[in-house]
């Protein structure tokens, strides 16, 4: 039995969760409970129908368990087979809590990494009456997205920024229209700044074989008719601008002149939404707690879009004599690297919400990795996303407790939502999200897996929880 902290109520709860095996145990326990519940009528029926004096109870139990297992396996295994061993583990983690879904308000024991972390305190105790951090919101978007952007800016202002008045940097590969600048400036309580991406940062680099890019895009698009695992089509299979965008967000945004001078950024996209009031200065809390990267939602990447990415990451680490980072104890390598398969777990922090330390991205370590990966052409030939690039770098190069999961910020980027599960918290923070739609414990979320890793780190470092 371990003691855990419910991240929403901050209560310590004891739980049976020791990962894979115990989660399975929980499932089996539930089945056995069910069988016991059904025992009496079942035996009565069998005796009456078969005219038997004695029906072997263990035989009935076995038959029942076997049928449930067959049903479960036939429904779930096709999905599981499409994933690697790590994903299987996440899936089982989901099962363990999924069975308790009816009462998830009290039973879904999840632990937030900031609790009991050496560097941290409860973030919402930080008073608003203090100097702001050196920070800005950052958005890359198009003129056509003006009114989706306006909704989002207004929402971020209402929920957070009207209290703190941080600046907001907007970048675009085209010049922003006067209308865009007028309407958005009017909504931002800090200073709104509008810039254009340098053309040299938004084009095919010279080493890219464009003919090959188009051929591979066509191939990816045609395979899309059969779909990736689970039948999901690969988004943006045939989009060049999406590839430029992912490359820009991976290796260039932090070099833009409008972001120079800032230490932290909070990335926002059109059409995202905050669902709870944020009464503390999130940037300042990052600074005061020594955090360098924050996320709200994590999930698995479409494998077909990053087929050679991790091989290249490993090559890079090997060439630089730092392969041991893959097995680091101080970093969060377990989140991205699966030792058994010697491959990527597919887990990444969803980068449409990220609060990060710009100095990390401007630093030598990150840029050398980016330059190496860029030279391999995967942004175009495969459609590497910026989220796996950021996540792999953050997980390997940062300390594990530099990273923070913002579990208290209700956040949605369609189609996924992160919503605090505790009604107490939702009432206090005036959240307007539906907790039954929360994605955190979904099979394709990696946040449960992240929590398990953090829990192990805290335990091995003598954390008291
Ligand atoms: N200026 C500009 N912004 C883009 C372009 N493509 C995507 N973006 C922005 O990049 C971010 C991610 O793009 P989005 O379409 O939301 O991708 P998704 O979140 O992966 O579905 C959003 O903020 C978009 O507004 C583009 O061609 N030009
Ligand atoms: Mg988006």
TrEMBL record:
Topological type in the membrane: Single-pass type II membrane protein
GO biological process: cell wall mannoprotein biosynthetic process; protein N-linked glycosylation; protein O-linked glycosylation
Keywords: Glycosyltransferase, Membrane, Signal-anchor, Transferase, Transmembrane, Transmembrane helix
Transmembrane helix recorded as keyword: yes
Listed GO CC annotations: Golgi apparatus; membrane
Transferase among keywords: yes
Record GO terms (molecular function): alpha-1,2-mannosyltransferase activity
Subcellular location: Membrane
PANTHER family noted in UniProt: ALPHA-1,2 MANNOSYLTRANSFERASE KTR1
Name of the protein this chain belongs to: BA75_01723T0
Organism the protein comes from: Komagataella pastoris (Yeast)
């Amino acid at each position: 039995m371990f003691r855990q902290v419910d991240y929403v109520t901050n209560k310590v709860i004891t739980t049976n969760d020791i990962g894979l095996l115990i989660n399975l145990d929980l499932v089996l326990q539930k089945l056995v409970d069910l069988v016991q519940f059904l025992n009496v009528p079942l035996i009565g029926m069998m005796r009456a129908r078969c005219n038997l004096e004695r029906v072997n109870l263990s035989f009935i139990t076995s038959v029942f368990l076997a049928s449930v297992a067959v049903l479960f396996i036939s429904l779930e295994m096709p999905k599981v087979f499409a994933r690697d061993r790590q994903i299987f583990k996440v899936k089982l983690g989901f099962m363990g809590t999924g069975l308790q879904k009816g009462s998830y308000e009290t039973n879904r024991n999840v632990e937030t990494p900031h609790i009991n972390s050496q560097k941290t305190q409860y973030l919402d105790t930080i008073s608003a009456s203090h100097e702001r951090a050196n920070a800005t919101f950052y958005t890359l978007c198009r003129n056509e997205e003006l009114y989706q952007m306006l909704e989002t800016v207004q929402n971020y202002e209402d929920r957070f920024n009207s209290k703190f008045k941080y600046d907001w940097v907007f970048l675009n590969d085209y010049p922003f229209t006067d209308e865009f600048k007028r309407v958005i400036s009017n909504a931002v309580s800090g200073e709104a700044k509008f810039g254009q991406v340098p053309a040299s940062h938004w084009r095919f680099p010279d080493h890219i074989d464009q003919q090959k890019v188009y051929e591979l895009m066509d191939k990816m698009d045609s395979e899309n008719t059969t779909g990736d695992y689970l039948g999901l089509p690969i988004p943006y299979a045939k989009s060049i601008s999406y590839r430029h965008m992912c490359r820009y967000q991976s290796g260039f945004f932090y070099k833009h002149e409008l972001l120079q001078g800032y230490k932290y950024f909070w990335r926002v996209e059109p059409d995202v939404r905050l669902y709870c009031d944020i009464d503390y200065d999130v940037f300042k809390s990052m600074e005061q707690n020594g955090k360098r990267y924050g996320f709200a939602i994590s999930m698995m990447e479409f494998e077909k879009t990053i087929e050679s990415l991790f091989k290249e990451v490993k090559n890079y680490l090997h060439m630089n004599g730092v392969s041991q980072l893959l097995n680091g104890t101080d970093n969060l390598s377990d989140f991205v690297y699966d030792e058994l398969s010697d491959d990527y777990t597919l887990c990444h922090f969803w980068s449409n919400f990220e609060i990060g330390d710009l100095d990390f991205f401007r630093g030598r370590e990150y840029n050398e990795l980016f330059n190496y990966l860029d030279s391999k052409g995967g942004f175009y030939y495969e459609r590497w996303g910026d989220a796996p690039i950021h996540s792999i770098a953050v997980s390997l190069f940062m300390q594990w407790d530099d990273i923070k999961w913002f579990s208290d910020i209700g956040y949605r980027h369609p189609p996924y939502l992160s919503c605090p599960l505790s009604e107490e918290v939702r009432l206090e923070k005036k959240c307007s999200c539906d907790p039954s739609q929360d994605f955190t414990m979904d099979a394709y979320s990696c946040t449960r897996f992240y929590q398990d890793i953090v829990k192990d780190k805290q335990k091995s470092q003598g954390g008291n929880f």
